[in-house]
TrEMBL record:
GO CC field: cytoplasm; extracellular space; membrane
Name of the protein in its database record: PSA aminopeptidase
Sorted UniProt keywords: Aminopeptidase, Hydrolase, Protease
Domain of life (superkingdom): Eukaryota
Gene assigned in the entry: Npepps
Signal sequence, renumbered to the chain: none
Family per similarity comment: Belongs to the peptidase M1 family.
Residues annotated as domain ERAP1-like C-terminal: 2-229
GO biological process: peptide catabolic process; proteolysis
Amino acid sequence: QARAGIISTVEVLKVMEAFVNEPNYTVWSDLSCNLGILSTLLSHTDFYEEIQVFVKDVFSPIGERLGWDPKPGEGHLDALLRGLVLGKLGKAGHKATLEEAQRRFKDHVEGKRMLSADLRSPVYVTILKHGDSTTLDTMLKLHKQADMQEEKNRIERVLGAISQPELIQKVLTFALSEEVRPQDTVSVIGGVAGGSKQGRKAAWKFVRDNWEELYNRYQGGFLISRLIKV
């Protein structure tokens, strides 16, 4: 109804606040998706920081209940929920989540304690969103060293979380490099487009500037339509 302009978005946010004690992954996934759409729309307004505060307020209680480590008897959906919630809090700049993500990432890079597969994407997104050129270089190094394609893809999807314009350009250049399989280039560009307001503009310009190469690479395939969609 809010999307149709029948009711105010404020009403939707009030309904969302009622879900703070919700334990179900599917519900949180839906909340996360809708808040992501709102964040994207509000990124061009003065309300962007306020929606990040709202995200932190809504997701903090469930984040504290879940914690960082699996509990005995947990199911697969609990692990998915933990990754979703920590990623959301980290991206929004929740201080405790950011600090813990940085600590665990450091241990992971130094080989002291490897991150579980469930936590890698949320931790990578968090440290990149609030990171610098050193962070990006470390992520690209991890990508190069990764034995499994699954890990390479995981890193490719989150690189677009980086915020600084010159680093966004570095990620886009990386997307067309030989380091990335041609079928995975779209994931990197899509990650940049969805990562930030600056990323959206940069990705759009990059696609236009490199349209001939991209079109020739994917002509007639579903990847070109996916690229346009993202």
